[in-house]
Amino acid sequence: MLEIKKIESGYDKLQILFGVNMKLDPNEIVVLIGPNGAGKSTVLKSVFNLANIYKGKIIYKNKDITRIPTHELIELGISFVPQGRQVFNTLTVKENLEMGAFLINEKDLVEKKINEVVEHFPDLKKKMNEFASNLSGGQQQMLAIARALMQDPQLLLLDEPSLGLSPKVMKDIFQKIVDINREGAAILIVEQNAKQAVKIADRIYVLEDGKIAMHGDKKILKHEKIKHIYLGGH
Ligand SMILES: Nc1ncnc2c1ncn2[C@@H]1O[C@H](COP(=O)(O)OP(=O)(O)OP(=O)(O)O)[C@@H](O)[C@H]1O
Ligand SMILES: [Mg+2]
């Protein structure tokens, strides 16, 4: 589904990633963990062509998508939910969802898609005409994910969906992510909250200083270093 091959990337002359290799199969949930500033967000931004790639390749469904424009990536079925609940505060929930529907030309179809997407998010369904700024943190994160779903992604890139949320809301978000995955989307999640995220992961990568330090299935969690650094020693 997605193959990140020896990616070296960064921002202008500031190199952040040094030869990152990752793989994601169809229907998989892959979680990328690592300390602050390791370059986790930069991995997602490299896939989505929001960082400068100096070397390496990104392959999606056997097609080289390295450096192709972001709107074309969306057309190919890749959606990105950036870090930090990026919603349009001065727009309503419904308007936010409409913003996610720019691939759909017909108004009726947009309406239909919105109804379809909010079926997954009962809280949003009740607040369609509310300004996004009036939503709770968890609801804003749900809205950011719902907006990405308007594009019918086959590959969903999520950057720290649980950031700053209470344990209960976090659990809801992770459950939602599992539901979206079961409906057919492959998901690549960046998470600080390794403990929760790894529960839903098929595979895990650990990024340190712009390099993959470790990867594997849940068994890598038994590794002492991971336990102590990322899972609080439990
Ligand atoms: N647009 C940008 N321009 C310049 N430098 C950037 C930009 N975005 C990120 N950086 C730098 O790249 C490095 C890696 O940042 P990145 O956001 O990828 O880390 P991260 O692992 O996601 O961290 P966090 O856990 O804090 O979100 C940091 O030193 C950061 O300051
Ligand atoms: Mg980040």
Can I get a quick summary?
With 234 residues, this protein is α/β, with parallel strands linked by helices. It is 33% helix and 27% strand. The two termini are 33 Å apart.
List keywords for this structure.
binds magnesium ion; six-stranded mixed sheet; globular; 10 strands; 33% helix; 27% strand; 234 residues; binds adenosine-5'-triphosphate; alpha/beta; four-stranded antiparallel sheet; 9 helices; Rossmann fold
Can you describe this structure?
By secondary structure, the chain is an alpha/beta fold. It has a single domain, classed as P-loop containing nucleotide triphosphate hydrolases (Rossmann fold). Helices cover 33% and strands 27% of the residues. The chain contains 9 helices and 10 strands. α3 (93-99) runs parallel beside α6 (137-149). The structure holds adenosine-5'-triphosphate and magnesium ion. Adenosine-5'-triphosphate binds next to β2 and α1.
What's the arrangement of secondary structure elements?
Blueprint: E1 2-11, E2 14-24, E3 29-33, H1 40-47, E4 52-60, E5 63-64, H2 70-75, E6 78-81, H3 93-99, H4 107-118, H5 122-125, H6 137-149, E7 155-159, H7 167-182, E8 186-190, H8 194-197, E9 203-208, E10 211-216, H9 224-230
Parallel strand pairs: 3-8, 3-9, 6-7, 7-8
Antiparallel strand pairs: 1-2, 1-4, 4-5, 9-10
The structure holds adenosine-5'-triphosphate and magnesium ion.
Adenosine-5'-triphosphate binds next to strand 2 and helix 1.
